[in-house]
Design brief:
By secondary structure, this protein is α/β, with parallel strands linked by helices. It contains eight helices and eight strands; from the N terminus they run βαβαααβαβαβββαβα. The structure holds adenosine monophosphate.
Length: 216
């Protein structure tokens, strides 16, 4: 199974992608996670990406495309993959098409998780994540609060708010999504690949709708 997961920030892509990864046993490739890992490790890519990520802007295509090409060449991707947060621009979508053509593979579907802006602002503002990079469990103070305030249920480490989940940055991220990522959806619609799923409801309900849309 080769999938692309598209949706505005805060739609729940990460949570749903991890469930699909386990269901299909495919590689979960989140460009946001890859960038955050590189920023935390202080690699050259991380240093270049940091100001963009922290201000809610998109990281330049050249950086993303190179990072994804390296990741696609790793052995676990041969069993299938799920892109989470990529492609976010038409140039990235074109680069993905080229890369797939080279390895003679095609996408099975593009899942579009649909949520209205007001709901996204509400959700992102209440999203907290485990500060332990190896755990990275996500919480939502409204819909999925931790058992102990400020502590991760899974590993006990302190929870933190992502720099780019701060209110002033959320608006920029939504704007970028509408300007730059919405055309990617149009591009994939023309190829008949888009399966639109509502991102409203419980995690389980949304996962069921996604699997139904994928016919599995
Ligand atoms: P995410 O965790 O997917 O919301 O990504 C967090 C941030 O990483 C975004 O706001 C961008 O700054 C950057 N980023 C992640 N994926 C991409 C991408 N495909 N293209 C450009 N920037 C990206």
């Amino acid at each position: 199974m080769r999938l692309v997961f598209i949706g505005p920030p805060g739609a729940g892509k990460g949570t749903q992608a991890k469930l699909l990864r386990d269901h299909y046993r495919i590689a979960h490739i989140s460009t946001g996670d890859m960038l955050r890992d590189r920023i935390a490790a202080g690699t050259p890519t991380g240093r270049k990406a940091k100001p963009y990520v922290e201000s809610g802007s998109l990281v330049p295509d050249s950086i993303i495309i190179e990072m994804v090409a390296e990741r696609l060449a790793e052995p676990d991707c041969s069993a299938g993959f799920l892109f989470d947060g990529f492609p976010r621009t038409l140039a990235q979508a074109a680069a993905l098409n080229d890369a797939l053509r080279t390895i003679r593979q095609e996408l099975n579907a593009v899942v579009l998780l649909d949520v209205q802006d007001e709901e996204l602002v509400r959700r992102l503002g209440s999203r907290w994540t485990c500060s332990n990079g190896a755990c990275n469990t996500a919480y939502n103070l409204i819909s999925k609060p931790p058992r102990v305030t400020g502590k991760c249920d899974a590993c006990g480490q302190t929870l933190m708010q992502r720099e780019d989940d701060k209110p002033e940055t959320i608006r920029t991220r939504l704007q970028k999504y509408h300007q730059q990522t919405a055309p990617v959806v149009v591009f994939y619609r023309k190829n008949g690949l888009v399966r639109s799923v509502s991102g409203m409801g419980t995690v389980e309900e949304i996962q069921r709708s996604i699997r139904a849309a994928l016919g599995a």
